[in-house]
Amino acid sequence: MPPRNVGTLAAAVSAACVALVAAGTALAAGHGSTAPRAPEALGSNWYAAAPYFMPLDNDPPDAGAVMDATGLKAFQLAFILAPNGGGCSPTWDGNSPVGSDTAVAGVISAIRAKGGDVSASVGGYNGTKLGQSCGTPEATAAAYQQVIDKYGLKALDFDLEEPEYEDSAAIHNEIGAAKILQQKNPGLYLSVTTAGTADGTGWFGKQMLNEAKSQTFTPDNFSIMPFDGGFNGAASQTAALTNFNAVLRSTFGWDEATAYAHEGISQMNGRSDTGENFTQADFQTVLDFATSHHMARFTNWSVNRDRQCTPPDNNGKTSGTCSSVPQGAYDFTKYSVKFAGATPPTAPPTTTPPSQGSCTAAAYSAGTVYVGGDTVSYNGRTWKAKWWTQGEAPSTGGSGVWQDLGAC
């Protein structure tokens, strides 16, 4: 994925808060250990539709609230990287070792407690990748196997892009590791994601495909990211997908239908890093193309961004925590649900709050979007939102979005 860590100054604080919240969530749900509960049996269509979600950065929303609002059952957790200080052991975002993790484990347990599951994405745009720091495909695979074993994963995404995919040795390690994992973990769902260009993918993307061919490795899909490259709406994206289909045919000798059955797309909802705007209508057009051509994957970056900014256009800036286009909460995530074959709720689920007694502020509603400064009444007390929120009932726990102003 392209530059994603907008607002990284607050990331460390956000990550620390998420760690405390996730650990508390796991304990409250009866999961006192750091090992996530076993996943439900999900069809591969859900892993193919799982949108990217940063559990430790970019102000992560509550995953359970997203599931309730959209019907989503799977998230693509990002990103597994090499340690920032060097080495060949897996970390989240380069600074949170997988081996000692409890924060992400708590998030996964909460998702699985609601009947969902997760995939993990390795690589991305930022940081050092394990394929760069581990010396061989075998060592790289061993590092990723730790992630699979830690979380009981049934799916993994290899996000291979610059600068790593410009390093042929690193790509040899990544593709080799993916093949080893495929053989060692029967049934593991594997996707490979790379940059998109007008002709499908660029020179380095084509070299990555040639590496996969040379190692006789075929994942469940090869996906491109047709954004941040001069794209203008859905028509330019579907044209790139058509051209990428031709690239897959020429590389692997597949016919058109077989190539589409191994082809996927990863979009960026709203405003991209380079100022392209992709709206709900664009997503619908691409979804129609993907389903009519029986494509293998439909995902986007990211759930963290799937909410409206204030103001909606974010003053013409791209954000890691909102889309910079007018939207309802989780509008774009609902397209993933449609691709998976499910029907998203027509409206967020509502709850009936307790009697407010003498409260004067409006009663809290789970279906309402609140922004910083909004006040509500709930459980006989008045609460003020510190920032954007939806679907998280006022409390002194959770994400910390609500400030308790006292009894009514």
TrEMBL record:
CDD domains: ChiC_BD, GH18_PF-ChiA-like. Residues 1-28 form the signal peptide. InterPro entries: CBM5/12 (IPR003610), CBM_sf_5/12 (IPR036573), GH (IPR017853), GH18_Chitinase (IPR052750). Residues 361-405 form the Chitin-binding type-3 domain. Pfam families: CBM_5_12 (PF02839). It comes from the Bacteria. The keyword Nucleotide-binding does not apply. SMART domains: ChtBD3 (SM00495). Keywords: Hydrolase, Signal. Transmembrane segments: none annotated. This is Chitinase. The lineage of its organism: Bacteria, Bacillati, Actinomycetota, Actinomycetes, Kitasatosporales.
